[in-house]
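Hey,
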Amino acid sequence: MDKIGLSRAVVSDVSIGSAISVSRVSFEYKLSYGSGFFLDRIILAGLTIHAFFDENHRLRLQGIEFPAGSARGSAAMLNPGLAALLPEKLVLQNADIVIHSDGFDTLVIPVNGTFTIKKETSQLGAKIFIYPFGEKI
């Protein structure tokens, strides 16, 4: 823990195995006597995710398969118990998705985005900007 205060805590140099690393994680919260602790926002700055294509050309990340196969156009829903623990906003700043593939160059895709969580309905919204080959999508 690098910093802890009344409204924010910061952790630096976090990694999960060799596939995921984050330069800085900021937790923004509110403390009150009546309602206790409320997590407003988590900011992931410098997130790097290393993924690869398997022999079936599926994107993999340490045993997780993408895409998960949700129906197109359906609302993204979270488990209500999980939604209650998460902040209302999750922000990605200067994130990189690094895709490794045998026989091809490594592809680095810069990403910025904001995810919003509606706790009362367990819905997840996203505003994501990706920059493959330097072009904003």
